[in-house]
Specification:
Blueprint (H helix, E strand, L loop, with lengths): L2 H34 L2 H16 L4 H7 L16 H7 L6 E7 L4 E6 L13 E3 L11 E5 L22 E5 L3 E14 L15 E7 L4 H4 L5 E13 L2 H6 L43 H27 L5
Parallel strand pairs: 2-3, 4-7
Antiparallel strand pairs: 1-2, 1-5, 3-4, 5-6, 6-8, 7-8
Length: 318
């Protein structure tokens, strides 16, 4: 083969390789934008935020985080979006505990207020009022985003809860169990009386949007409000945290077959063990499956593009 022909062939291979790499980059960028612009991607990012904020949480850190600067001005909060989630990843959030509703696959870190830069709602569930205490004789009001049932992030499955289900919250000193006794889907944002204390009662109130049925409740026009009464308090031992599905993500798998220990007692609080029927989450609400799909896609994409480049540089048999 002449030098001129060899040079032409080499240029052609280089050009073909560059075209493949450019098309691959554009395709990968497009898929990435579509994924992270979807509910699946948003849920995945929030789940990553939650794991980051909750992974190494200890009782000592909880006490330190309670002293962090925050705001309780709900008027400054905005609807969740991919842009806001990505922005929040650069702003640290400081968890003051965890919340779980095992019956409906809800597991979140808990934060005091909305955060000094309104970042906390992109990490998990927040307390709405500064003068309420976990497990105290008050209405402990919590709120979180509804993201479209794409994942267990935040309070997507709250509308699936039923009376008798148990809400667990912990500050890693104690675990407080509240039995759900009231569920409403058509509460207007102006009906703030749901946040009021009820004299002599230790209760919890969870609030999120009722966007799971926009034809009936509109988009952002109504709130799902779930309320329950305190039925139990116990020490936040590792065993009890796992049983209530309040342990860190590293230890959650160990809790599947455990049940809450009932050896501890608390005066003036009725002891009750509620047998719950677990709501089976959709396959796309399992972050392990989502992560597995992401890894498989990246691996297959890399192998395919490598094969295409190799084919370009294989010797011509002619």
């Amino acid at each position: 083969m002449s030098k001129k022909k060899q040079s032409t062939t080499l240029k052609g291979k280089i050009w073909s390789t560059l075209k493949i790499l450019l098309l691959a980059a554009l395709f990968y960028l497009g898929v990435t934008l579509i994924f992270f612009g979807s509910g699946f991607g948003g849920s995945y990012l929030v789940e990553q935020n939650a794991e980051q904020a909750s992974a190494d949480l200890t009782a000592k850190k909880v006490e330190q985080n309670k002293k962090r600067k925050t705001t309780y001005d709900a008027s400054k909060t905005k609807s969740i979006s991919t842009a806001r989630i990505i922005r929040s990843r650069g702003i640290k959030a400081y968890a003051i505990g965890r919340i779980s509703i095992p019956a409906v696959n809800i597991h979140n870190p808990l934060f005091a207020g909305y955060g000094d830069q309104n970042q906390n709602l992109e990490y998990g569930v927040v307390t709405c009022l500064p003068d309420r205490t976990m497990g105290g004789e008050n209405n402990y009001v919590l709120a979180g985003h509804y993201m479209g049932t794409y994942g267990p992030a935040v309070l997507d499955n709250l509308h699936l809860a039923k009376k008798g289900d148990v809400v667990y919250v912990t500050d890693l000193h104690n675990i407080y169990a509240y039995e759900i006794n009231n569920i409403s889907f058509a509460v207007k944002p102006t009906q703030v009386e749901v946040e009021n204390n009820v004299q002599g009662k230790s209760m919890i109130t969870l609030i999120t949007c009722s966007d799971f049925n926009t034809s009936k409740y509109g988009y952002g026009q109504h709130r799902t409000v779930v309320q329950g009464d305190l039925i139990k308090k116990q020490k936040a031992t590792e065993k009890n945290l796992q049983a209530a599905e309040l342990a860190s993500s590293k230890k959650k798998n160990q809790a599947k077959k455990q049940s809450i220990s009932s050896t501890e007692k608390k005066t003036s609080v009725k002891q009750k063990q509620v047998i719950q029927t677990r709501v089976r989450p959709h396959f796309f609400q399992n972050m392990k499956i989502i992560k597995g799909m992401i890894i498989c896609f990246n691996l297959l994409f890399f192998l395919f593009m490598s094969w295409r480049v190799i084919v370009v540089w294989l010797p011509n048999k002619k």
